[in-house]
Amino acid sequence: MDHSYSNTKPHQKGKHLKLNDRTTIQELHSKGYSNRAIARELNCSPSTVGYELKRGTVSVYTGNVNRYKAGEGQSTYELHRSECGRKSLFLRRHKFIDYVSHCFHNQGWSLDACVGYALAKGIFQKDQVVS
Q1: Closest-CA residue to 102 (of 90, 88, 118)
Q2: N or C: which end of the chain has fewer CB atoms below 10 A?
Q3: SS3 for 51?
């Protein structure tokens, strides 16, 4: 905001939007501001505002009207952030981890013995094993 009494810091370029940025987008969009004008207020790209409006727009009044909701945009953002990034090998190879855990705890084998036996007997392939 460009008021002298405003205590909020402007959005930094290259940073993710916060909930208060999304609230500002919601307020200004409902007043009829363009994406470019909203972007000037937030100090970000107009395409960022456009993407955010697309991400957080929901149907209200039994689907007759579409409105941007800051909370919906924030929850969609958090969902996307939780699903991004490379998944761990331990999450993708849970069957092997379960097998090793069973052999280690119930049969008293060492971890190397579990891996060696699984490879020797063909229970798991080399690309299914976590070292």
Answers
A1: 118
A2: C
A3: helix
Joined tokens for residue 52 = 């955010």
Output the pTM of the full model. Answer: 0.62
Two tokens at 14? Answer: 């290259």
73-84 residues labelled b (16+ CB within 10 A) or e (exposed): bbebbeeeeeee
d(C-alpha 38, C-alpha 32), whole Å: 10
DSSP track, 26-60: HHHHHTT--HHHHHHHHTS-HHHHHHHHHHHEEEE
Q: How far apart are CA 116 and CA 120, in angstroms?
A: 6
What percentage of the chain carries pLDDT values higher than 70? Answer: 88
Euclidean distance between CA atoms 108 and 102, whole angstroms:
9
Residues 68-94: tens digit of each pLDDT: 999 999 999 999 998 888 877 677 788
